[in-house]
Design a protein that fits this description.
The complex is a heterodimer.
Chain A: E1 4-6, E2 11-14, E3 19-25, E4 32-38, E5 45-50, E6 55-57, E7 60-65, E8 70-75, E9 84-93, E10 98-102, E11 106-111
Parallel strand pairs in A: 2-11
Antiparallel strand pairs in A: 1-3, 3-8, 4-5, 4-9, 6-7, 7-8, 9-10, 9-11
Chain B: E1 4-7, E2 10-13, E3 19-25, E4 31-37, E5 43-51, E6 54-57, E7 64-66, E8 76-78, E9 87-94, E10 104-105, E11 109-113
């Protein structure tokens, strides 16, 4: 089983749609969680951190369920500019230090 | 402005040659990381360093080497032993004192073996 798994995608949605991405992780000792956005041929950029209580930033809402080891990202009122690959990232400590594990990503295309 | 720089942006290499990718950060971060990304794939960890003069192998370290002589610099050498080096290479850093901090990425180097 992979450490971090995501919906395989791609997701093709019309402008204005609501889309949800799911992510599961296998390391129960994981401590912090993030969603990154990666545009084609660019570096990943932080979209939002994910907190236990859930958090919202404008049209984006992230949820964490530690018991189920599950993270989600909801995008409301999709824009063309939301088209990108969304990466789920899990941070844990190993014997050496902090280790970030990336999911394979889910590609989103928002269509006019 | 603070950030991470990687150079060159594009690099072409002949088979059998070693090449070194540069990564510099002025964020005063302790930890630095190298990842490889293949088309349509996620990021895979090559090497990481939590402190100067120390580093650890990641999941795919074979055929690569690194050094960490200065806090702000973490160069990656792709050796001729790396069988399929054509990929997008990303350098990242993070502070270690605050555990929940995210990683910051450089713009990447796209390596092509001819």
């Amino acid at each position: 089983r992979k450490e971090v798994e995501q919906d395989p995608g791609p997701f093709n949605v019309p402008e204005g749609a609501t889309v949800a991405f799911n992510c599961t992780y296998s390391n129960s000792a994981s401590q912090s969680f993030f969603w990154y956005r990666q545009d084609c041929r660019k570096e990943p950029k932080l979209l939002m951190s994910v907190y236990s209580s859930g958090n919202e930033d404008g049209r984006f809402t992230a949820q964490l369920n530690r018991a189920s080891q599950y993270i989600s990202l909801l995008i409301r009122d999709s824009k063309l500019s939301d088209s990108a690959t969304y990466l789920c990232v899990v941070n844990s400590r190993d014997n050496y230090g902090q280790n970030f594990v990336f999911g394979p990503g889910t590609r989103l295309s928002v269509l006019p | 402005d603070g950030g991470i720089t990687q150079s060159p942006k594009y690099l072409f290499r002949k088979e059998g040659q070693n090449v070194t990718l540069s990564c510099e950060q002025n964020l005063n971060h302790d930890a630095m990381y190298w990842y490889r990304q293949d088309p349509g794939q996620g990021l895979r960890l090559i090497y990481y360093s939590q402190i100067v003069n120390d580093f650890q192998k990641g999941d795919i370290a074979e055929g690569y080497s690194v050094s960490r002589e200065k806090k702000e610099s973490f160069p990656l050498t792709v050796t001729s032993a790396q069988k399929n080096p054509t990929a997008f290479y990303l350098c990242a850093s993070t502070p270690t004192r605050v555990y929940y901090n995210e990683q910051f990425f450089g713009p990447g180097t796209r390596l092509t073996v001819l």
